[in-house]
Amino acid sequence: MSKSYGSVRALKGVSFTVPDGEVSCLVGRNGAGKTTVIKALLGLIAVDAGSLRMNAREGARRIGVVFGPEYWVGSRTGEQSLKALALAIGASTSRVPVCLDEAGLGDAARRRVRSYSLGMRQRLSIAAALLGEPDNLILDEPFVGLDPEGVRWLGDLLRDLAREGRAVLVSSHLLAELESVGDRVIVLNDGRVVADRPVADLRQIQGVRLRVHDSERFSDVAARRGWQVERAGRDSWFVIGVSLDEAIRALAEAGVGIEEAAASRGTISDFYFDAVARSREGDVAR
Q1: The ABC transporter domain covers which part of the protein (predicted)?
Q2: Spatial distance between the Cα atoms of 266 and 38, rounded to a whole number of angstroms
Q3: Rounded distance, CA 126 to CA 103, Å?
Q4: What is the phi/psi pair of residue 49, to 5°?
Q5: Per-residue pLDDT, 234
Q6: 75-81, Cβ contacts within 8 angstroms, sequence gap of 24 or more
Q7: Which domains does the chain have, with CATH numbers?
Q8: Is 252 helix (H, G, I), strand (E, B) or coil?
Q9: Separation CA 102–CA 157 (nearest Å)
Q10: More exposed terminus of the chain, fewer Cβ within 10 Å: N or C?
Q11: What is the mean pLDDT of the chain?
C-alpha cells in the first residue's frame, strides 16, 4: 500500500499479512503511519497504489474495530451507547449486556459515559468491537488509559480471541504491553515496514543486555570481536550469543564503562529499536 497527503508520503509500499489465530502487533512511533494503515484497511481512506485483502478466511465477514475512548457521547449511558451501535450495525441488542460484562462494565452500564474514567471508556470501545461477534479484530492503541489490571484483562482477551481462530491486529507504540500478547511483530517506520518477525523467534535469542557510557567505543569493541548486536535504546544494547562474563570482561579490558549488564532473552523492544536503527542507517546510505 502507498498513500500520500499532498507532498507527504504517509505509506511507502507497506505490505504484511495478519494470519488467523494470531495476535499481530503493528508497532512504531507516533507518526510512523500506523493509523493510516488501519484506516486504509477499513476502507476509510483510499490508497494511491497497491491492494488490500481482508477476511481471506472463507465465510469471514465481520470486523471489530477499536479506535479509542474519545468518540463516545457523554450524555448517554454505556448501555444506551452500545444499544444504539448494535441497532446501527444490525447486531442483536441481547449482545449489549454480554459485551459490557465481558469488558468489566456490567455494574456501570447505566452510568453516563461522561462519568467514566479514561480506562472505562476504553473498555467501552472494546465492548463495542465485540458486539457483532466479529471474525477478526483491529485495535488502534487499545492499551491507552487502562490500569495494570485492565492491561492484563485485555491481553488475556486478545489471546483468547486469537485462539478461537480470529485474526487480531493491534497497533501500538506501547511496547511493554505487547511483550506477553503478540505472536508476530511488524515494525513500521517512516511509512515503511522495516521488520516483520514471529515473537517466538525473538524469545529464542539469548544474550546480554547492556547500558554503556560510550556507545561509539562499545561499537568498536563489538566490531573487533564480531559480536552480533542490536540497539535497544540510547546507549543500550543487546549482544546476541555472548555470555555475561565474556561481555563484561571484554568491555572492561577496552575501558568501556558499564552502567547495567544482565543476561537476557530477546524482546519486542530490542527488535523494534534495532529495526528502526537499521532502517535509518539504510536511509542514510541511500
Answers
A1: 1-215
A2: 28
A3: 7
A4: -155, 155
A5: 82
A6: 75/112, 75/113, 75/114, 76/112, 76/113, 77/109, 77/110, 77/111, 77/112, 77/113, 78/105, 78/108, 78/109, 78/110, 78/111, 78/113, 78/116, 78/124, 78/127, 79/109, 79/110, 81/113, 81/124, 81/128
A7: 2-198 (3.40.50.300), 206-265 (3.30.70)
A8: helix
A9: 9
A10: C
A11: 89
Q: What value does the mean pLDDT take over residues 271-281?
A: 82
Residue 156: predicted pLDDT: 95
* Cα–Cα distance for residue pair 181/120, rounded to 1 Å: 21
Residue 15 three-state SS: coil
C-alpha cell at 173: 507504540
User: Given the C-alpha cell 500478547, which residue does it identify?
Assistant: 181
pLDDT value of position 284: 32
Q: 3-class SS at 46?
A: coil
Give the tens place of pLDDT for each residue, 100-128. Answer: 999 999 999 999 999 999 999 999 999 99
- Residue 207 CA to residue 262 CA, distance in Å, equals 9
CA distances, 24 to each of 2, 43, 118, 169, 252 (Å):
21, 20, 25, 5, 40
Predicted local confidence at residue 68, as pLDDT = 73
pLDDT digit string, tens, across residues 192-251: 999 999 998 888 888 999 999 999 999 999 999 999 998 887 889 999 989 999 999 999
